[in-house]
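Notes continue from the previous slide.

Worked example: a multi-chain complex. Inputs as given:
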Amino acid sequence: EILSAIEAALGAGPLAGRRIVVTSGPTHEPIDPVRYIANRSSGAQGTALARALATLGAEVVFVTGPAAVPPPQGVEIVRVETAREMLAAVEAALPADAAVCAAAVADWHVANAADQKMKKDGSGRAPVLDFAENPDILARIARRAEDRPRLVVGFAAETHDVVAHAEAKRARKGCDWIVANDVSPATGIMGGAENEVTLITGSGAEAWPRLSKDEVAQRLARRIAEALA
Amino acid sequence: EILSAIEAALGAGPLAGRRIVVTSGPTHEPIDPVRYIANRSSGAQGTALARALATLGAEVVFVTGPAAVPPPQGVEIVRVETAREMLAAVEAALPADAAVCAAAVADWHVANAADQKMKKDGSGRAPVLDFAENPDILARIARRAEDRPRLVVGFAAETHDVVAHAEAKRARKGCDWIVANDVSPATGIMGGAENEVTLITGSGAEAWPRLSKDEVAQRLARRIAEALA
């Protein structure tokens, strides 16, 4: 780790000269000026991954939603709020050698978000929110005709049938790898310090042991370095 | 301030022997195990107020949603997530001499919240969320037949027609005071360090100058001490 940091500082790590875009954190989708739809991603895994990639010498563009953990040092930080802003930021960061989509992106945004705070009108009737699908950032990047990164990695946070859902997701999105994990509340992974992932590649599924999020990040960063070598 | 802290430590402040319930922070209303509806309250004003009341000698029960700022020291902390949990915690904390409802409570919860993560089914159709009105914590406390605190204070976060909405809110809820402020994004108050409030009492509306949230808290705590004297 110390050796890696020295190598990175000297521009000599295995990812020296590689540009990698990492998305991280949740997105927030506004309902009105004070309310929004969020998700429980802390940004911890994406932040650890960006740090590990930078430590191996990569030039990292870190596109982050409003995360609970502070962003890593030594990377270019682009702060966004919504899924649509995140897509635009990732596209603006291309071309890149790899894109790792670790953010927990909202599937939908509120199409009829209000300019003023929505108020109860005394009728007991709730507001009707019209949802519109957000752009699929992972698929959009993986299926680009121009400037498609050589390696596109997605994450799949599932609460059941983790590997089956993740393999289907890899095929559907057109990405190269999926890092799948089980975020059922019982696992304590969402917001916690550890992660237990399965790496899905074109060669099959590898179940990794339960590791700290830093160890998962370092292991994944080394795999990315091998793939780009 | 130092004198107040010494008095409080000696049980000698103007609020010594008074029990005050303070709610603070946002509530989170689950959509499914990973998604929720939130609001932009940082909990800063409620936290500052609880600290100021404790400094004046009060026994403070601090009922807080998932806030961005850490809770104050020297108070009893009750952590909740949803509006329904917050109401239950406040009711459990009674009887009390005063209740100050500074939390930004969601008006609605998702009646059809899912046990498993909602997934896009490929149809492009968005989920339909059925909203149900949350209990009105301020009105429920202010209109109690038994154990109504002598002083019930609400907050009104508005984006337009602040005083008119706040005066109507005071009458509608049956509370004694409303602390009203303008949380339009342009003011920078939501999530910021300052606040500019209007105190609405039975005697009318007092516009306070723009002050730090700590100063607003100290001023309001002194007014509460006078009201309970």
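Summary box: The CA atoms of residues 118 and 133 of chain A lie 22 Å apart. Chain A has a mean pLDDT of 91.
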